[in-house]
DNA sequence: CAATGTTAGTTCTGAAATTAATTAACGTTA
DNA sequence: TAACGTTAATTAATTTCAGAACTAACATTG
């Protein structure tokens, strides 16, 4: 299946018989289906697998033996004998989800049904120091102790972080120092924790979460837009996360929108990121406030570095017209960038995610305005724009999904 | 499988038994594999299908009965008994490929191994008149007679044409008049010819051809660039043509590159198409020559409308510095547009196709220049830019493939 | 509360497919 | 040219699986 298994690189699947192969394929399908659907009857699985009920019965029996699956009791129904529901065993196979951002880091432990059984928000910012990873490992071990999870209850670790993530080599190319020596980031972390480690870009994790459990459920062609340090575009193509050849797909933030613009940290000039990323907005607002801009945000005049994107949005919600103008403008630029992506991807739905969600009132209208202006009208007809409904958990759900789908793929 | 079957819209697969379902799945796989690989031994097919040799033998026997497959004699080999090779029967199941462009129309009949058994270039330009289609039908019927093919030897028709092709409804939204009344274009043509008709955008056909039989063979993430009336971007994602939600994906030509640019026929301002499409280049050269530009092309001064993209490229090949400058510039703009697509798609290969191929000497360098300037450098490392090797047949191969893959999908 | 209808799940049987064994077809070599 | 090595394909055997028949579990109804 995909890539980014941290431990095995090109290990060939052991030469197995045809019947074993088919069985593992089917078991994998069962697990993946139970993972997204929660519970399922034998009859459901039989039609899903194009197999007979007796076959599925023995298949599921085996999965119960290995403690992957558990019976969830009978379903409620109107008439007739009630079917027994099966689901993933939630008492085993916990996964650690580590959400790394430039603001802080969160360590979560989730069960197979994606319930958070433990959460720790730690004051560790993503930076380019090689010490970052070793701190993370010690925080991780502490969390494991606090959560009271034993070694063998945890099966894998998923890490989501911003930056260009080289999928095959599981390295972060934006934060190069994180790759200890020549080893891949994930491989190193894996050696430290003795667990398989899966690395995924934060935007791709978010869109994966939306695709499986959010507003994009069942949709085949999806874009999700996310604003953070940079502008992230998450892409679902034919129902699957689109990574591109090296894992870099969706770098909307580094397309040029202003030839006379500012220098971007990537070295190019006038990238979309220099106009409308969280970092760019903060800088701009801080500059404006310092130079006497009239605004509710002026209360921060003596400590402008306290102004973040959240403060900006809060001010807008309080009716501050300067803040509203800034957000309107950001929305328009975002829409302009989105319009390009729409022309290329022809999505059926666009999901607004991340911190932007709370600014929806102020940016949605100008986003739509820009899209109408810069997109061919035929593209608009079958397309909707929606806000995330997942309350900020899309990224975690997506990271968990990414880990589980990889685990299922290796039977 | 995909969409755009002209005859059946949402017809559900007949409720069939599990064993029948599996058999048709396997037969479909066999056909698809033989289609791209030409010939194949039973052992090959067995590993492909994850089945035993005896099973595959009976499967293939059945396909021979239905005259889809034929034995191709023994393979040559070093030692041991020679395996029998099987391939698609080339004496049956011919497909008509109709290549419609704004310059002319070509009608081809191809056998299952993609050999052209008949070709007719007809003087019919794609235009927005509703009479176009009826002319095409009569040309088509004439060609059928000339080729000496009987009704039942032809199984389907594939039409490639420029424009926005609404996949689900098989309509051409750019050339709206072609859609007779409310019926879809393909459906109407299908009724006239009594064959299933598949409609595909020309750029998508081209990239499909490159993906299956050209330089992009085996590549998963591919972009192909094509210049014609507009700029076409063909996209292969995870090894399959990317259509988008409605079939419009890849409209690179209508992203804005110059806010102060010319009005595009789409209604927007400064689209890439207004700078560097064949139409735009022709217009510009014609204007320049008329107003006294020094160039070999000045021989056309009294009949500038004779200057097409081919004449421009010819002049460049003769060393005309004006023509070379124009092409250099076009390459640079094209590269700038491509850079955006690269940032979003992170392809492993970009293929230069269509009329551009012959201008490669003049545009490749500036394309690369622009890409280096506007792309993150990490994107360049795993990416190559290549010229098509298919001598202009990519589009036909792709159209044929599109038809065949759809036919195989409906067993 | 027995009879009946409905759906689920198990048991059983015949069909189908896998695996193993055998035969076939070829080249090489003694 | 006959024996042997090698690979293919067929036949035989054993296993697996689908489909049907049957049993189980529930609600409703007379």
From TrEMBL, chains A, B:
Sequence intervals crossing the membrane: none
Name the family the entry cites.
Belongs to the ROK (NagC/XylR) family.
Pfam families in alphabetical order: MarR (PF01047), ROK (PF00480)
Tell me the first and last residues of the signal peptide: none
HTH marR-type domain residues are: 24-70
Matching Gene3D superfamilies: 3.30.420.40, Winged helix-like DNA-binding domain superfamily/Winged helix DNA-binding domain
Which PROSITE patterns would you find in this protein's record?
ROK (PS01125)
What GO MF terms are annotated? Answer: DNA-binding transcription factor activity
Name recorded for this polypeptide: ROK family transcriptional regulator
Superkingdom of origin organism: Bacteria
């Amino acid at each position: 299946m995909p890539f980014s298994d941290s431990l095995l690189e090109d290990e060939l699947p052991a030469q197995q018989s045809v019947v074993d192969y088919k069985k593992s394929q089917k078991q994998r399908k069962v697990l993946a289906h139970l993972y997204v659907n929660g519970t399922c009857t034998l009859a459901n699985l039989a039609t899903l697998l194009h197999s007979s009920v007796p076959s599925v019965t023995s298949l599921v029996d085996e999965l119960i033996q290995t403690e992957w699956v558990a019976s969830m009791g009978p379903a409620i129904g109107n008439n007739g004998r009630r079917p027994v529901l099966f689901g993933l065993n939630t008492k085993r196979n916990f996964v650690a989800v580590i959400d790394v951002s430039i603001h802080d880091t969160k360590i979560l432990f989730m069960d197979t049904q994606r319930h958070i059984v433990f959460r720790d928000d730690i004051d560790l910012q993503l930076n380019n120091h090689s010490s970052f990873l070793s701190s993370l490992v010690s925080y991780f071990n502490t969390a494991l102790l606090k959560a009271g999870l034993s070694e063998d209850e945890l099966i894998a670790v998923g890490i989501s972080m911003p930056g260009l993530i080289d999928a095959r080599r599981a390295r972060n190319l934006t934060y190069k120092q994180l790759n200890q020596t020549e080893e891949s980031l994930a491989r190193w972390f894996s050696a430290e924790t003795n667990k398989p480690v899966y690395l995924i870009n934060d935007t791709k994790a978010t869109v994966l979460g939306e695709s499986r459990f959010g507003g994009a459920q069942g949709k085949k062609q999806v874009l999700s837009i996310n604003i953070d340090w940079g502008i992230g575009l998450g892409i679902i193509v034919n129902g699957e996360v689109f990574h591109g050849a090296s894992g870099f797909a969706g770098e909307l933030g580094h397309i040029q929108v202003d030839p006379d613009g500012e220098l971007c940290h990537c070295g190019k000039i006038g990238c979309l990121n220099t106009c409308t990323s969280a970092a760019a907005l903060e800088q701009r607002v801080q500059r404006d406030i310092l130079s006497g801009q009239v605004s509710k945000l002026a209360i921060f005049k003596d400590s402008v570095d306290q102004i973040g994107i959240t403060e900006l949005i809060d001010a807008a919600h309080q009716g501050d017209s300067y803040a509203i103008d800034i957000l309107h403008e950001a929305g328009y630029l975002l829409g302009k960038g989105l319009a390009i992506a729409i022309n290329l991807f022809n999505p059926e739905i666009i999901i607004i995610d991340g911190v932007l969600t709370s600014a929806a009132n102020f940016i949605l209208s100008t986003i739509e305005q820009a899209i109408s202006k810069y997109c061919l009208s035929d593209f608009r007809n079958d397309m909707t724009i929606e806000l995330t409904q997942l309350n900020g958990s899309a990224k975690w759900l997506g990271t968990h999904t990414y880990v589980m789908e990889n685990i299922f793929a290796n039977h």
